[in-house]
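Open question from group meeting: does this chain pack into something compact, or does most of it stay loose? Before anyone orders reagents, we agreed to write out a predicted structure and look at it together. Recording both the input and the output here so the notebook holds the full record.
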Amino acid sequence: MTGQMIEDYLAELGLIDDAGNVVTPETYTFDDDGTIPNSPLPVVLYRSITPGRGDLAEHLETLFDINAWPAQWRGNVFDYHHYHSVAHEVLGIFSGWARLRLGGEAGQDVEVKAGDVIILPAGTGHCCLDASDDFQLVAGYPPDQQQWDICRDATEHDAATKRIAQVPMPSRDPVGGEGGALIGLWHVR
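Structure tokens returned:
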């Protein structure tokens, strides 16, 4: 796939600014709350400027696949606080909007909409508080993290924290590829 084709997908998703650059993402960090370990790595949120009218789900899946975060499923976010202890996760919204709480019960509410992409480091709590009837997303995981888990209980915390520390860093940003923001944010510890 050519660089121009990738740029076309990014443009269709509204993830390219007026200067032709990938939009600068927002970042969020959360402390361990005793139930949800969270991560010292930041959550990375790419906000779509204006998504196109094409097949956003297909564009997101292709973009994630190209950037070595293979898409695994389509759906939405559970309405209970949970996290993954053996995988980082990327969520690309292709329809509707949702208000998610990141970081556990005392975390932060973030609204996401079609075209937005959110990257959750292993251990980061997330929960859907409210969503439009048409809210849908694509989820992907790095190739060595395809067997993700769902953790939500305080009794899992200590063992999960040990697993989270062993999760490898991805080689690419699911949006920006090798030079994406995630690489600079996560690989500089």
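Observations to bring back to the group:
The chain has a mean pLDDT of 93.
The chain is about 20% helix and 30% strand.
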